[in-house]
Amino acid sequence: MEHHTDMLIVGAGFSGLTMAIEARERGIRDIAILEKADDIGGTWRENTYPGVACDIPSHLYSMATHLNPDWSRAYAGGAEIQAYLQKICRDEGLYDLCHFGQKLKAARWDGERWQVVTEDGQRWSARFLVSAIGALHVLSIPNIPGADSFPGPRFHSAEWDHSVSLSGKRVAVVGTGASAVQFVPEIAKTAAHVTVFQRSAPYVLPRPDGPIAPWLRRLYHRIPLLPRIRRKLIYMTFEFRHRVFRGEPRMVRFAMKMWRRSLENAIADPELRAQLTPDYQIGCKRILSSNDWYPALARDNVSLIPQGVASIEGDEVILADGTRTQADVLVWGTGFHVTDIIENLDITGSNDLTLRQAWSEGMQAHLGTAIAGFPNFFILLGPHTGLGHNSVVLMIEAQVRHIGRVLDQMQRDGVQAITPRPEKQAAFEQEMKDRHLNSVWQVGGCTSWYQDAQGRNTTLWPGTVSEYEKRMAQSGLEHYLPVPPSGGA
Fold it and tell me: What letter would DSSP give residue 352?
């Protein structure tokens, strides 16, 4: 049986749900959402490790159309964010659009519509196809010799095994990224010993976290303008942080002072301080935020090993110099594949052009949202839409408003299918290369998951959110070519 719909959205996280709400407001009623799991939520459904939380304040990390006066903390935990998304789905009737347990297998443009097959054989035909799969879901687990020989439990932070008690256990944690900074302080409270293996020290800054008083939440309910004001103030503050990434000396000095004070207040041992001092410019890698990371590393039952793991033999984790550390449980805090997610997408556009071919020299999309040669196909949080300083929910909202406006213009002009103008996409890509060329992400002395295998930063938007929002608001159907039914462009 083949299902027909006007718009097929792949993924039911922040991106997919925001797109569905926007499309419905634009008059598109026949919408379906394919979701590989058994519930909505994306990142916030999958990540349930101890201490999981957002590193953007709650009032900003939320939909502008669905502000939440009930956030319990300045920085919400993962379960609360998931509950927030579930409430939106219930209130908006979005669950009725969702088809769970459906993972995209392949999609092909047939000249007029997208023909989509899921892994269990469901077939869909859609006029518009939207990728809302996000970037942080394909686990990155290092290929360490002997890892399979480890006799105890081992799992990635995004697939946390809650059946395994860490109380009284020796836990080896590989990686010191955003997830590890959150879960290590939590598991250190009960584990016998936690050994953290660090290849590269991150910059970890403190954050103004804490509970939001009940009286203030009641006030937010009574005066809806107040949470909107709070959101705006947070937004402006975080936009200001972009100056660190631009290398403005005053802001860089301020950020470094905050980082150094946080480190020195928690860590007395000069050797450990040195091991926790990054050897690259602040901003080159993702700047992390935590009030607990450095204090956790100062605990007697936590050890930091400033080296990567060379191999594993049985229950022993071995360094390049032969040093061995015994462990009962092994946790990968090694993040996700981001720049090579193409390997998991079997999408074919006009003239049998595959996404793999279109991205043979790296990910690219016009305005990070549409790809030349792929008619009526949009990608949310695509290339050059990631941020290092603010909430990506704002980027998603800018994208879906742009898509919605383009859909309106197509309806007005009687256009059935569109694809980005190749010259527009090429100019955008060249601009991104030029702007990244001498950026801190490229010349700051590090390599990071922002970069692809060739060292190109295909992940981040180099400017402020306000610049992107303005750009998207001023871009419409003139950026696209009409596609005739034959599929040519």
Answer: G
Q: What is the token pair recorded at 131? A: 């990728």
Residue 79 has phi, psi (to 5 degrees) of -65, -35
pLDDT digits (tens), the chain, 489 positions: 789 999 999 999 999 999 999 999 999 989 999 999 999 999 999 999 999 999 999 999 999 999 999 999 999 999 999 999 999 999 999 999 999 999 999 999 999 999 999 999 999 999 999 999 977 667 778 889 999 999 999 999 999 999 999 999 999 999 998 999 999 999 999 999 999 999 999 999 999 999 999 999 999 999 999 999 999 999 999 999 999 999 999 999 999 999 999 999 999 999 999 999 999 999 999 999 999 999 999 999 999 999 999 999 999 999 989 999 999 999 999 876 665 565 568 999 999 999 999 998 889 999 999 999 999 999 999 999 999 999 999 999 999 999 999 999 999 999 999 999 999 999 999 999 999 999 999 999 998 888 888 889 999 999 999 999 999 999 999 999 999 886 444
Show the tokens assigned to 9.
């959205």
Work out the burial of residue 416: count CB atoms within 10 Å of its CB; fewer than 13 is exposed, 13-18 middle, 19 or more buried: middle
pTM of the model as a whole:
0.95
Running DSSP on this structure, what letter comes out for residue 112? Answer: S
